[in-house]
Amino acid sequence: MCHVIVTCRSMLWTLLSIVVAFAELIAFMSADWLIGKAKPSSSDDVENGTGGSQEPYHPTLGIYGRCTRISHMQFSRRDTLCGPYAENFNEIASGFWQATAIFLAMGIMILCTVAFVSVFTMCVQSIMKKSIFNVCGLLQGIAGLFLILGLILYPAGWGCQKAINYCGPYASAYKLGDCSLGWAFYTAIGGTVLTFICAVFSAQAEIATSSDKVQEEIEEGKNLICLL
């Protein structure tokens, strides 16, 4: 018989697991890893009287994508165009960024799998006599290691030609040059920290769902068990 067990700690672990997976996925897909040096308004815009008074803009560069401003002379307006600069994996600007993409993708795949499984832990707490919480916690720890490897390798690619075009000639491995770090990089770091917190907290979720109070309510014949 399936017993739906909801505790404060297990629900918090489930929510954190989902948030971490989405945060890492959004950061990975974003182009806001590096904020490039300021670029002035184009001469075409100045001549058309549409850009002379506007401040310079900052293009952004991600692992495989970028955002830059393009000018539409016909309509006299400026738009920001975002999209992948690499049509395939081999066109990613740096070998280090290729390794970063691999490690981050592996970590995110594990996190998304755990986030999906965590929703069902309310009904199923063990498989083959092994706690799902402990298994998921172990997987989250492994995912965290993949994420750390990716984040360590990422700055090593700052010396590639693509990064130099955005950050100036002084950019090199682990040196930003004229660039600054964007929100996506900080989000990835924050998500990595939360990943390890989730891995540790999974043990608390397992303890909460197998506590004496839960067992007492099961023995009383209750199918829906909610404990704070």
Automatic annotation (TrEMBL):
It is found in: Membrane. It is a multi-pass membrane protein. One of its GO terms (biological process) is single fertilization. InterPro entries: LHFPL. Keywords: Fertilization, Membrane, Transmembrane, Transmembrane helix. GO terms for cellular component: membrane. Coiled coil: none annotated. The chain crosses the membrane at residues 12-35, 96-120, 132-154, 183-203. Gene3D superfamilies: 1.20.140.150. Belongs to the LHFP family. This is LHPL2 protein. It comes from Serilophus lunatus (silver-breasted broadbill). The gene is Lhfpl2.
